[in-house]
Every structure is written in C-alpha cells, then in structure tokens.
Design brief:
The chain is of the alpha/beta class. The chain contains 23 helices and 19 strands.
Length: about 575
C-alpha cells in the first residue's frame, strides 16, 4: 500500500481495533491532526493538559481491556505526561504513547523542543524507540502493539519525526494477529501447590489487580470457597482493581500500609496463596523490615515472572495466566482435600462470613452515629455515596484518606470489575481516568471520588468532560489539606507532626473554590454540606447525561492511621 507515514500509522491502529485517540497536539503532531479531519474511524478526544490526556487513555484501556492510544507534543508534552505514564507503568496498562519529533533534516542543529525522548520514556515503558525510516514504521507498529498487550502488559512509546509522518512510501501494513494470553502454569508445579494448600491448617489468599484484569474473579472465588480461605486485597497504596467480591463471606478487608501491621495481620496463617499481586510494594519503611512472617509459606501465581520471589522467597512459583491457573488449581485442590479438610473449610467460611457481616453492621452503626456532625465526616460522606451507588456503577478513587476502602467495607461495590484505584500515586489521575472509563463503558454510570489536593493536579480535564459531554459524577472530598502526608509524618515520628504543626500541607488562605473552577471549565457544580442532599444530588447525577461536580467540605481532623480492614 502506498501511503504517508501518518496514514500508515492510522491504518494499523484501525486494524488493531483502536477507535479512540487521546491527545494534546503541537506543531510536530499536526500531520496527525490533519489526517484525522476526514478519517471517520477514530474519535479524537482533546485534553487541555497531558495529565488529563494520559489519564483518559489509562482509564479507557483499563476498562476496555484494549490498547489505549495517546498522542502528546514533543519534549514538553511528554514531560508533562510523565507522572501519568508512571501510573500506567505501575498499573501495567497497555498504552501506545506517541509524540512527534522534529524534522530529521533539522535535528543536528538542535532545534527548539527537540530532545532524546526515548531516553526520557524508557524507564517507565516496556519498549521505547524513535522510528528513523518510514520503511520501519509498520514493523515498529506491530512490535509496539504486541509488546503493550502481551503479559505483563504495559505502556510503550514511539517517537515519530514530523517529516517521516508526511513522507510517502510503498509499505506492507499486514496486521499482527493478537496472541492468546492464556498460558497455563506447569502442571507439576500446580500439583505441588494444590497438595500444600489442601493440607494447610489455616490458609489465606492475597489478591491483586491482575486477577480482575485476567477475568479470573470467578475462578478465584471457587478456589477460596474450596479452601474456606479469607481473601485479603492488597493495601490501599497499590489497590488498583478489586479482584474479589466485597460482599462475599470470605472477603476479609485489605492489607494495612506498612510492615508491623501487615505482619500482625498475617501472623496466624501458615500458607499464603498470592494471586496477580506485587508482593509487596510498601509505602513507608518500618521495622521489622520483613512484613511477611518467616513461618508463612508463600505460593505465588502470576503472569509476570519478575514478581515471583522478588521480595520474599516463595515455596512454589506458578508462572502463568491467573484465570487458567486458578481453574486448574481448584480442580487439583478439590481432589487432594480429605472429607475432614472439606468440612473444616466449610465451617471456616461460615465463621468468616459471620465476622464479615458483623464488621459491616458495626460500620453502618458508626456511620449512622456521625450523620449530624458538621462538617460531615469522611465515613458519613462515603456512606451517603454508598446508599445511592447503582449496582453497575464504576468507581474511580483518588482520595485515599477519605475513601479508606469504605465502599468495599460497606458492601457497596456490587460488581468488582468496576473499581479503579491508584497504583502509581502520581496525583491528578482520577479526573481523566473516570472519563476514559465512561468512554469505554457508555452504559455504566461513573463516580469519581477525588481528594481536593489530587484534583488540582488534573482539574483541566473537566473541560474535556464538558466539551465531549462525558457524564461523569465528580465528588471532591474537601478537607483543605494533604492529609496523607500528615498521617505519614506522624507515622515517621517527626517532631512537628507529633505536635500537630505542619508546613506546606494545608490548602488554605485562600481555599480553592472548586465550584467556580468547575463552572469556568463548563461543568455544572454545587457545594454540598448535608449528607441527605449529597445522596439525592449524586443519585440524580449518576442517572443523568452530563458531567457534574460536587464540592463536599469534610472534617479536617487527621486520623492516627488508615484502617483498610
């Protein structure tokens, strides 16, 4: 096929099933912008800042399970993108990130904005390259798409010189057929793991985001029920997706943030089955350095071999797809368990289910006791949202000290695949991700719960929500501070923090007027201070067809710790 470089780029994207391109263009991206004028295969979604652009692509790719495509401006645009690229890298999101490069005939003169973008992108991508010859573009595209989508999935980067985009040549644009990711772990290793788990006295399961991304929730439920084992999601600092139903009797609440409490939480178990999870990525160093008790034997199933034994020795490492591995593991465990063990597992599940219900009921009682407190408490805010959250809703959380896994603990998330939380912790992520999720799932309402500090890093994304009429409900949990940093400082025993004195951690004098800010970007916004009004307004917004933002002032008291259980 004879075509220009940019036409070849678009042709191969279309063959790969791509129909959305998220971008913020500059001069070196103008051939793409011009080519899209008459190309009806793609919806180009413009963002006013690269934080929003990358966030939207990240959310779209995570929700759809397909390739997200991002086009940003040369060096400065890529630089603005880097925090969100870090998030995508930590999440393993399959993104194709592209940027235009200066004309190859001009590069030796070191023209404005040119730089070695490949070296900039390399640390947080699976593969990064600048395409130097138009004849190499089809191979670069095939390679980039396959690398991004092959487990362990992740972002890739292509630098495309502007003259290469306009150059014309005869090119072979044959698409690369997608690879089947369902690679099962070795049978003998599965048998050994099944024998250990079947004979365990008190097993538990640690679950990570890659379970839901592998569509393996049902398989994990069956394994957990067979073992009668509590299922513990990863801690709030890496808890990106929800790999187990929070209303199930065996849901046991998330891991704490740091070593002493993690160690205490796991002390009573003898066998840990770890599935689709980075073991562990902690937040702040605490003694003892080892968070997994020495007596606990670890069996780890993951599609990413790098994660097996990375930080803690494993008794058995199972390299393979979570869905295929869990399905086979369940059959082998069932065959290996004695009737006595099966009876014990069933009794254990009933006991854990009763404990789970008691914890949820106690939390509801606590929430009810705080309904009259003003400003409203974080728990009251989350309870008010939980009351009206539709069964098919998607939730994007970037307000960790407020949300505190409350939706899970209150049993509000009816569909675990609809939860999206931070894994990289570069701020500004939540606004864009929520829009990307809604574009991928146009029939599911989307609620974005944002901290006030985090929201300010990506607030420009509201313009895109208004411009594209993307119906997302944004709730800003406004405590006028960087509360997570205050909690961290207290945990580090810093003297000023222990006295309640801080510098640079309060967002006051003036406070941010989120209502005026949202309205200036075209989004309808309201300040809400009553929990009943909040429930009513959010319910109406989730059923509506336009974006809305609610600014909710909450209490400013800083808790001593975050409880993810």
């Amino acid at each position: 096929m004879r075509c220009t470089g940019i036409d070849a780029f678009l042709h191969m994207l279309a063959d790969a099933g791509v129909n959305h391109i998220f971008g913020n263009p500059g001069t070196t991206e103008l051939p793409l912008s011009d080519a899209l004028v008459d190309d009806g295969r793609f919806r180009y979604v413009l963002g006013l800042h690269e934080v929003a652009v990358m966030g939207m692509a990240d959310g779209y790719a995570m929700a759809s399970g397909s390739l997200g495509v991002v086009n940003v401006h040369i060096s400065c645009g890529l630089g603005n993108s880097m925090g969100m690229l870090y998030n995508a890298y930590r999440s393993g999101t399959p993104l194709l990130v592209t940027a235009g490069q200066q004309d190859r005939r001009l590069v030796f003169e070191e023209p404005i904005l040119s730089s070695d973008m490949v070296r900039v992108a390399e640390p947080w991508t699976k593969w990064a390259v600048q395409v130097q010859r138009i004849g190499d573009l089809p191979s670069a595209m095939r390679r980039a798409i396959q690398i991004a989508l092959t487990p362990p999935t992740g972002p890739v980067f292509l630098s495309l010189p502007v003259d290469l985009q306009m150059e014309e040549a005869e090119l072979d644009l044959t698409p690369q057929p997608p690879l089947d990711r369902r690679v099962r772990p070795p049978l003998e290793a599965l048998r050994q793991a099944a024998e250990l788990l079947a004979g365990a006295g008190n097993p538990a399961i640690l679950v990570g985001s890659r379970v839901v991304e592998a569509d393996a929730i049902d398989e994990l439920v069956r394994v957990a029920e067979t073992l009668g084992a509590p299922v513990i999601p990863e801690s709030g600092t890496t808890h990106g997706r929800l790999g187990f139903p929070c209303r199930h009797p065996l849901y046991a609440g998330g891991l704490p943030l740091w070593s002493p409490e993690v160690r205490q939480r796991l002390e009573d178990y003898d066998e840990l089955l770890v599935v689709g999870m980075d073991l562990l990525r902690q937040y702040v160093y605490h003694e003892p350095a080892r968070a997994i008790p020495e007596h606990v034997r670890v069996i780890h199933l993951d599609e990413d071999p790098y994660q097996l034994g990375k930080n803690y020795p494993v008794e058995i490492g199972l390299v393979g797809d979570c869905k295929a591995g869990l399905a086979e593991l369940d059959e082998l465990i069932s065959s290996a368990m004695s009737p006595e063990k099966q009876s014990i597992a069933q009794a254990r599940m009933e006991t854990l289910g009763a404990m789970h219900s008691e914890r949820r009921d106690a939390l509801l009682v606590e929430a009810a006791s705080q309904r009259d407190v003003r400003p409203i408490t974080a728990l009251t805010l989350m309870d008010s949202l939980a009351r009206v959250l539709p069964a098919n809703a998607a939730v994007v959380e970037e307000a960790v000290t407020t949300t505190n896994t409350m939706f899970e603990r209150l049993g509000a998330l009816r569909r675990p695949d609809g939860f999206f939380g931070h894994r990289g912790w570069a701020l500004g992520w939540g606004v864009g991700v929520a829009m990307g999720v809604r574009l991928a799932w146009p029939d599911r309402p989307v609620l974005s719960v944002l901290g006030d500090g985090a929201a300010m890093y990506g607030i420009q994304g509201l313009w895109t929500a208004a411009h594209e009429r993307i119906p997302v409900t944004f709730v800003v949990c406004n405590n006028s501070q960087y509360q997570i940093l205050k909690i961290g400082a207290a945990g580090m025993k810093l003297p000023g923090a222990l006295d309640g004195r801080f510098v640079g951690l309060d967002l006051v004098d003036p406070q941010v007027d989120f209502v005026a800010l949202a309205r200036s970007l075209g989004v309808r916004a309201t300040r809400v201070e009553d929990p009943e009004e909040l429930s009513e307004r959010v319910a109406d917004s989730l059923a509506g067809d336009e974006p809305q933002l609610f600014d909710v002032p909450i209490t400013r008291e800083t808790p001593d710790r975050l409880n993810y259980g």
